[in-house]
Amino acid sequence: MSPLDLSIEVIGWTGAALILLAYLLLSAGRLPARSIAYQGANLLGAIAFAINSGWHGAVPSSALNVVWAGIALFALVRMARA
Fold first, then answer.
1. Can you tell me the distance from the alpha carbon of 19 to that of 42, in angstroms, rounded to the nearest whole number?
2. CA–CA gap between residue 4 and residue 8 (Å, rounded)
3. Fewer C-beta neighbours within 10 Å, C or N terminus of the chain?
4. 38-66 burial by CB neighbour count: b if 16+ within 10 A, else e?
5. What is the pLDDT of residues 8-64, one digit of tens each?
6. 1 by DSSP, 3-state: which?
């Protein structure tokens, strides 16, 4: 495995961990959905997943995560304006 391939895998697993951690904390009542931490973790996690999915040619997964990141970004912008 090349250093670039390894980096892409680390990015993907980091994205998965961020999204799962955000969901766990939301479900446990530790983070509100309208928090910068929750939406930020979703944004970064989705970007990381999109990179990993795109690298592996998984277009549906990559597209899903681009939309997921867009939703998180939209929420962050709305919170900043409020």
1. 5
2. 6
3. C
4. bbbbbbbbbbbbbbbbbbeeeeeebeebe
5. 999 999 999 999 999 999 999 999 999 999 999 999 999 999 999 999 999 999 999
6. coil
The pTM of this model reads 0.93
- Structure tokens given for 65: 């995560």
* Token duo for residue 75: 């929420």
Give residue 8's identity as a one-letter amino acid code: I
> Distances in Å between the alpha carbon of 32 and those of 20, 23, 71, 76?
15, 10, 16, 13
Listed in sequence order, the residues at least 6 apart from 9 whose beta carbon sits closer than 8 Å to its beta carbon are: 1, 52
